[in-house]
Specification:
By secondary structure, this protein is α/β, with parallel strands linked by helices. It is built from 19 helices and 17 strands. An eleven-stranded mixed sheet has the order 13-12-11-10-9-8-5-14-15-16-17, with helices on one face. Strands 1-4-3-2 form a four-stranded mixed sheet. The chain has a two-stranded antiparallel sheet with strand order 6-7. Helix 13 runs parallel beside helix 19. The two termini are about 25 Å apart. The relative contact order is 0.11.
């Protein structure tokens, strides 16, 4: 990925930075999915999946690029000759070459009725200068996959993250809950202090030489057993200090039990908060009721605002869910913004149930994202911005190689632990017994599952290696694949469609921020 967005962001027709020299080797076909051309906000953009570069196109630039993509052998074959013979005038016998700036004759014939020859020639020169560098860049990850000596295995580094299911129980009964209203399909239970401390000891040992470790207090509703949360956190700090390790803590809560005493403890110990609120009161209360069927928005929002105030407006995210019943979710983001929240994430509800999204909902979601971007940009222009989690793609500093190949590290860098101490690859696979890996006392017994999750990465997924979005999503959610297709190597199709739609808008959002900052 580009180190800096000002470098990675290119204007294809009128370059922002000088062209970079390159070499094209051979005349192999263009990899399918290497470059994705799309429109957003009235702009034409092209994203190169391998290099992570975003280009702005005009109409002639789009036409030239799409011709090249449709006829890769002809286009790339001439581009290769051009790179080797830069500056040489065309000669008799060169074949399919126009006398106009050495543009392929087939390209001129295809576009001459739409654009002037000079425009076609200029766009072709710019395409050729980017080819193999920021357009159809070599994919080093795919080229080197399978050569184990090329990189150290992530297994050698050890575990770094743990989801502690403090409670397999909940005070709410949310309609779309993947955890079966908190019980994960089993008997409701709470984690004991002893089990929680043992889980921390297991993480400390399994983390090997890692210094920084992450623990998420999760459920169900973890505040149902807040004494365990406190005891485990303090134990982690003590034991971590002895071993020279530092912990970062997160707690996910529905906010209903988040009283001032709990907030103070969490703030005093630097715990980041994930606060579950869906947006507008009517949207939230439709899906997130108490077990007695009563609405929760008013109290949850009041408690969330109290926590945000004590945290100084930072160190939290509002984490909501949009469903088939709230496809105008941009209004939910606006509502959360109006309530004073500035760190917001909304996730699509993909799954079984009347609330679950389907492909017929994609266009409505597309329109909602488009409206959301305009609101997001307007807030930036008014100098009162908010962060929408899914618009932050990491283009400014780039994503590490491991995160590009697999989004979360489930099963080998990250695990989930139940109240009884059973280990699963991630929190969404808890209770799915074929994914039980062992327990914190005996260790990980299913080494085959470690290998299975380690190898469930982009280069091993046939549908992903040809997808332009492969290194932005990391191959999709393993749990969704397990529940949808039954195969970790086959991502859930509906999730993929919604992901790619969201990524188009996120790329456009980043383009807007960069260009407006330059003006």
């Amino acid at each position: 990925m580009p180190v800096n967005l000002s470098v990675g962001m290119q204007d294809f027709v009128h370059r922002i930075q000088p062209a970079v020299s390159f070499e094209v080797k051979g005349v192999s076909p263009i990899p399918k999915g290497g470059v994705h051309v799309f429109s957003a906000g009235g702009k034409i953009l092209a994203y190169d999946g391998a290099s992570g570069t975003l280009h702005l196109l005009d109409e002639v630039g789009r036409a030239v690029l799409e011709w090249f993509m449709d006829k890769p052998r002809a286009g790339r074959g001439y581009a290769a000759r051009g790179s080797q013979e830069a500056g040489r005038q065309p000669r008799p016998g060169d074949g399919d070459v126009s006398v106009n700036e050495a543009v392929p004759g087939g390209l001129v014939s295809a576009l001459c009725g739409k654009f002037r020859d000079e425009e076609i020639a200029e766009a072709w020169r710019e395409l050729r200068s980017a080819l193999g560098n920021t357009l159809f860049a070599p994919d080093e990850i795919l080229e080197h996959e399978g050569n184990e000596g090329d990189y150290a295995s992530p297994l050698e580094a050890g575990l770094k993250s743990m989801c502690l299911d403090i409670a397999h129980d909940c005070n709410l009964s949310c309609a779309y809950c993947f955890a079966s209203q908190g019980s994960f399909g089993g008997t409701p239970s709470l984690m004991s202090e002893e089990t929680g401390k043992a889980a921390i000891d297991f993480l400390l040992e399994a983390s090997k030489d890692r210094k920084y470790l992450d623990v998420d207090f999760f459920g169900g509703e973890p505040l149902l057993s807040f004494n365990t949360v406190k005891a485990v956190l303090l134990h982690a700090l003590r034991e971590g200090e002895k071993r020279g390790k530092e912990f970062r803590f997160t707690l996910t809560t529905n906010c209903v039990l988040l009283d001032d005493e709990k907030i103070k403890f969490l703030v005093d110990h630097g715990v980041s908060l994930i606060l579950s609120i869906d947006g507008r009161s009517e949207v939230h209360d439709r899906m997130r009721k108490t077990r007695g069927g009563h609405p929760t928005y008013s109290h949850a929002a009041e408690r969330a605002k109290a926590a945000v105030r004590l945290k100084g407006g930072k160190g939290y995210f509002i984490r909501g869910t949009y469903t088939k019943f709230s496809l105008d979710f941009d209004e939910d983001v606006k509502s959360l913004y109006d309530e004073g929240f500035r760190y917001i994430s909304l996730e699509p509800a993909v799954g079984e149930g009347p609330w679950g999204l389907s492909l017929e909902d994609l266009e409505a979601a597309n329109q909602s994202y488009a409206r959301l971007i305009e609101f997001w940009l307007d807030c930036h222009r008014r100098k009162d911005p908010f962060e929408f989690y899914h618009f932050n793609l990491g283009l400014r500093h780039g994503l590490c190689k491991e995160r590009r190949m697999t989004g979360c590290g489930a099963g080998y860098e990250y695990i989930a632990v139940t109240p009884e101490g059973e280990i699963f690859p991630c929190h969404q696979l808890v209770g799915k017994h074929e994914f039980s890996m062992g327990n914190i006392r005996d260790g990980i017994l299913r080494k085959d599952l470690i290998s299975r999750f380690l190898m469930s990465r982009v280069p091993m997924k046939p549908d992903c290696v040809s997808c332009w979005a492969r290194y932005l999503c990391g191959g999709g959610c393993h749990a969704r694949a397990a529940y949808s297709t039954g195969d970790l190597l086959k991502p859930d199709a509906i999730s993929c469609h919604f992901m790619k739609n969201r990524l188009e808008h996120a790329l456009y959002a980043q383009y807007c921020l960069v260009t407006e900052a330059r003006n």
